[in-house]
Amino acid sequence: MSVDTVTLEIIENTLRGIRHEMDAVMFRTSLSPVIRETHDTYPLVADRDGRMLVGQFGSHLASFLDELDEDLAPGDVILQNDPYLCGGSISHVPDLLVTRPVFHEGELVGFTAQFGNLLDVGGTVFGSMPTSARSIFEEGIRFPPVKLYEAGVLNRSLVKVLARNSRAPEEAVADLMALCTATALGERRVVELCDRFGRDVYLEAGDLLLERTRAAVQRLIVDKLPTSPQAFEDFVDDDGRGNGPFRIKLAVWREDDRAIFDFAGTSPQAPGPINFYLHDGMMKMVIGVYLIMVFDPDVLFNEGFYDLIEIRIEDGTLLRPRYPAPLGIRHSTMSRWIDVIAGALGRHVPETAAAAGYGSSPHLLYSGTTRAGETFGMLEIFMGGIPARPAGDGLDAHSWYPQLENTPGEYQETYYPVIVEESGIVPDSGGAGYHRGGCGVRKIVRFLEPGELSMFDDRHVSHPWGIGGGRHGGRSRKELVRADGEREALPAKVDFVEVGPGDVLIYETAGAGGWGDPLQRPVEWVLDDVAKGFVSQEAALDHYGVVLDDLEATRRLRSARARAVVPLFDFGPRPPGYEATLDVPERAPLGAAEAIEPRSIDVGLLDSRE
Known about the structure:
Helix content: 25-40%
Strand content: 15-25%
Structural class: alpha+beta
Distance between the termini: 46 Å
Oligomer: single chain
Number of helices: 13
Largest sheet: 7 strands, antiparallel
């Protein structure tokens, strides 16, 4: 049988639509703001062999099928959230994952899956991400792969166990049911495709989509990756328990049409919970996203190319910790190895590389009991500066994960005892460059009831680096102002901070590095940034050589400061413990000649100059 081109395109685009429709179900039926407002949830449609056809984080399927050791039937739904029993496909326990086998006329044709970050699943602090955890046992309840539904019958005992272990039981149960509903919607849509085109056509189409993506990525590997190893390294500042910094080191090269990503030299696993159990499939996913989005974004992202990439990670390291190492705030490590990938590829082709970003997924958790006796728990995921890149400025106050959205202050003030006094950007936190790095977030929150804070972030010591003459970005900062005026600087990662009515938290996230020579940035862009508050007058002068209202003085100043050679990377000041083991090469600064049109980028999502 051969699937014609038109049919293949219809099936491909229907699959794309299914993943978005599954997300829409989540946003409309969940209760917790982290899913409903922030959209921290990920869908998946896979073929009958467990290979992801569309979506994200599909690498769990083979692992959970091995662990389940049970036959699957129509109406089954499998629940799991244990990172160590799925090879790190789920990387911390608040992420609950449900998977549903899809049958058509009694024959297995695939799977649908969805996971979402629940508000709380137990552990020592509200939110189930304690910065002080010493093992995964302190981070909340864990479910091995187990049937939540069997032949359509709900296991109510499992639901009761989840509710009993959560500080937000109503939200936890509602979100769990939303996950199940989303997978049911995906199942129905896949069955409709089989009914419309025939089961054999659908299955063959899945194979063809995987093969097509494999061929496209194969060409990208040959065209874009070096044949000799290109190495890069960066640091996570600390682990929340007073240890750090932690080095992540990566070498990248290709052998024929296969890509090698070797993390030899990465620090041993941390005592605290920044460990990131990096599943090979997740690493391959990010590599594929990077290659596809930068060089050929029309390619459907799926698992078809995974056999072309080899991942080498030593056991017992930050990226492959041994059980029962804590994993709850792996966000900084997750973000840092994305920076490291960009840096390693940047050594090979800096003209197509991005700088470094804000380097975490900053969280704030505020919980307690009001003076009227009502319990509450607020979880907010913050954004930061997205790196500058050849196609344009980095995004300001945005998330590494494009689908995430900020939680509106109006929502927080309606449902939680807080007043949001300020929400905006941190001026000058975006690294100067021909293309400017994105600015970080500044948020000021006043607490109205006694409670407890838990928070985590990174890049409070190290800077997001710039590339090709671009400057480093600004660092993160946290400060608590007590109702009596006393001010207290807070660590980036901290638990059990007691607050009272009238106390105010100032929460600033890091910016991102710049791309290319700031002295080549068009003056009108700099003036626009100054007018909008992204760049101060002082930074316009010091970093961009722009004298406001005096174009001739600007030309003289820029000419006097012009550089023929610059370090390829600008890491900013490097304190003790952050010493480099790799050289920083020099080259002519990147600028207008190397900038590219955003023709290979999802412009509506990524281009900040529209």
